[in-house]
Design a protein that fits this description.
Mean pLDDT of chain A: 96
Number of strands of chain B: 5
Strand order of the largest sheet of chain B: 2-1-5-3-4
Largest sheet of chain B: 5 strands, mixed
Structural class of chain B: alpha+beta
Helix content of chain B: 25-40%
CATH superfamily of the largest domain in chain B: [2Fe-2S]-binding domain
Oligomer: heterodimer
CATH topology of the largest domain in chain A: Uridine Diphospho-n-acetylenolpyruvylglucosamine Reductase, domain 3
Strand content of chain B: 5-15%
Radius of gyration of chain A: 19 Å
Number of helices of chain A: 11
Strand content of chain A: 25-35%
Order of helices and strands of chain B: EEHEEEHHHHH
Order of helices and strands of chain A: EHEHEEEHHHHHHEEEEEEEEEHHH
CATH architecture of the largest domain in chain A: 2-Layer Sandwich
CATH topology of the largest domain in chain B: DNA polymerase, domain 1
Low-confidence stretches of chain A: none
CATH class of the largest domain in chain B: Mainly Alpha
CATH class of the largest domain in chain A: Alpha Beta
Shape of chain B: globular
Radius of gyration of chain B: 16 Å
Amino acid sequence: MHAINYESPRTIADAVALLTAHGDKARPLSGGTDLVIQLRAGTRRPDYVVDVKHIPEMTRISFSMQHGLRLGAAVSCIEIHENADMRRYYPGLTEAAHLIGSLQIQSRATVGGNLCNGSPAGDSTPALIALGAKARIVGPKGERIVPVETFITGPARTVLQPGDLLVELLIDAPARHSSDAYLRFIPRNEMDIAVVGVGASITLDLDDDRVTDARIALGAVGPTPILATAAAGAIIGKKLDDAALDNAARLATSVATPIDDMRGTAEFRRHIVGVLTRRVLTIAAERARDSEQR
Amino acid sequence: MVKKVIVEAMINGDPVELLCEPRQSLLEVLRDELDMTGSKEGCLTGDCGACTVIVNGRAVCSCLMLGVEAEGATITTIEGLADGAKLHVLQQKFLEHASLQCGICTPGFLMSAKALLDHNPKPTEADIRYALAGNLCRCTGYDKIVKAVVDAAQTMLTGAGSGHGTVPRQSASEATSDMLGKGEEVK
């Protein structure tokens, strides 16, 4: 590994000052499960690594029904899975975080880092998009809020400019009778990169069992994660019966732009998009019906 | 021009202070600076788990953590598993169940298993297989390893609870001491 300088600021202002001063020669470090590999391989060669795990706002999970969720960008996947609010109110995002790599990886890896790494196949990103998550970015020109579906602009490319820091992810409190789900296809049981990932959130009107709101997001089937707007739109106002599920699956498949690679052919991936879309919608709806307390 | 950093951490119960280059992984610091060579270098990409250590109660790949990130951390490595000459129950059960052949993966498996039993003293076999999914073995196979952890968990629940059993036969202990990371001293 090339020589690096290590900084561990205690505040967002200090972190942004460091990142701004060193521009594209600096890279934030959270869990390091991508960055350390990239440093070792020489695919990223920053002179400064800015460890953001000592910044309180970035390492906390704060949730209330009134204010929703603020998920620090440097919160580890295992902390998400261990958090009772996360498991109860955002089960789809929680399961996405809990199937990234091994427990050793989950002990370090973060949902914020997963997003900033910009992989089209990151597991937590479709789950975030399905929930309508927004990224709070602080940079040299101040603060801005970016919807997660626009955060990744291409493989390993994001909206972050030199000096910018992803501080936290903001998600609304779940609506009454709503829930979410995430599934991915991999050819083994654990520890693999998604061939296809699909996240969905759904809100039901239990009086007539119709869908009042839905979001569907696809991973690993395009250069960026994809918000499948038409697929979700097709089930809003409908009962979630076989016809509606077929419709959503067909429309989700139609916006996927997968490639052939060692993990699967484009044709296979399109097929799996449909299968997983049906399944995540069904699971999210079951969870929404069970969420009587909300 | 690169600033070296003084890192203070608690390693296997001892306070350790060292001057660390930021580019060094925790694994390099343990092996090259502290001569604690029980943690093994395998893939260097977080896939094989041979470098697993416990940091602040969680199993991590020490190859994916910078040494400088260990500031203030409490770390247990394979060298801290046995209590002097007394093997940890997990180590003893690995011997009894013949859960190792070449031994390269063994320290990592033991540390992942230790982290699991610390959090969950009554794991199911599925829990054990899940917790060990980040550790790869290419010669012994997984069944003997899983059986050893099942047995260790039961023994620790019914036994004195210290996690440390009796000293096994001297020859076995000596023959495997290197594989299990014993015999290493912290400088």
